[in-house]
C-alpha cells in the first residue's frame, strides 16, 4: 500500500497522521507539498524498530488503531469528530522533535488524548 498526501510543509498534524496510518499496515508513505516537493518531519527519524504486531485490520475498543513496535508504537484516531483518551500503559514517552514541540516533547505518558484525524508515534522509555 502506498500512502500519498498533499499538505503544507508546516501541517505537521496531517503529515504525522499519514505516517502513523502507513505504519499500521506496512505501507509506503510519500507526503508532498502542494508544489510537489517532498516533505520531511521529525518523526521520520523515530527509530521504532520492527513491528511486534501484524498489520492492523480494525480499531480497538476505544476506536483507535494501534500497532506496537520493538521500540515504540503508532496510534491513529481516524474519526472525523471524536476525541479519544487511551491508556498506553507504562514505559512510553512522546517522541522528541523540534518542529512540533507541543506534541513531540519527550514527556513520559501512560495515557494519550487524540483528537479527530490525529496520528502519534510514541517511543519506549
Describe the structure.
By secondary structure, this protein is mostly beta strands. It contains one helix and seven strands; from the N terminus they run βαββββββ. The protein has one helix at residues 12-24; strands at residues 2-6, 28-32, 65-69, 72-77, 84-94, 108-114, 118-124. The strands form two sheets. Strands 3-4-7-5-6 form a five-stranded antiparallel β-sheet. It has a two-stranded parallel sheet with strand order 1-2. β3 (65-69) and β4 (72-77) form a beta hairpin. The longest helix is centred in the N-terminal third of the chain and has 13 residues, at 12-24. It is globular and about 40 Å long. The model has no long low-confidence stretch (mean pLDDT 93).
Outline the fold blueprint.
Elements (H helix, E strand, L loop, with lengths): L1 E5 L5 H13 L3 E5 L32 E5 L2 E6 L6 E11 L13 E7 L3 E7 L1
SS strand fraction: 35-45%
Oligomer: single chain
What is the CA-based Rg, rounded?
A: 14 Å
Helix content: 10-25%
Trace the largest sheet across and list its strands: 3-4-7-5-6
Q: Helices and strands, in N-to-C order? A: EHEEEEEE
Q: Tell me about the biggest sheet?
A: 5 strands, antiparallel
- Gross geometry: globular
Using DSSP, what is the number of strands?
Answer: 7
| Average predicted local confidence, pLDDT | 93
Structural class: mainly beta
Ends: how far apart? 30 Å
* Number of H- or I-type helical stretches: 1
Low-confidence stretches: none
Quick tags:
mainly beta, 7 strands
Summarize the structure.
With 125 residues, the chain is mainly β.
Amino acid at each position: 500500500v502506498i500512502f500519498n498526501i498533499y499538505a503544507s510543509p508546516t501541517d505537521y498534524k496531517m503529515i504525522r497522521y499519514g505516517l502513523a496510518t502507513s505504519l499500521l499496515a506496512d505501507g509506503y508513505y510519500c507526503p508532498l507539498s502542494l508544489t510537489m516537493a517532498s516533505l520531511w518531519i521529525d518523526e521520520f527519524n523515530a527509530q521504532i524498530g520492527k513491528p511486534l504486531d501484524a498489520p492492523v485490520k480494525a480499531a480497538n475498543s476505544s476506536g483507535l488503531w494501534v500497532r506496537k513496535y520493538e521500540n515504540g508504537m503508532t496510534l491513529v484516531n481516524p474519526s472525523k469528530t471524536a476525541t479519544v483518551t487511551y491508556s498506553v500503559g507504562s514505559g512510553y514517552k512522546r517522541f522528541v522533535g523540534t518542529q512540533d514541540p507541543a506534541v513531540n516533547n519527550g514527556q513520559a505518558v501512560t495515557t494519550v488524548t487524540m483528537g479527530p484525524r490525529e496520528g502519534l508515534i510514541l517511543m519506549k522509555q
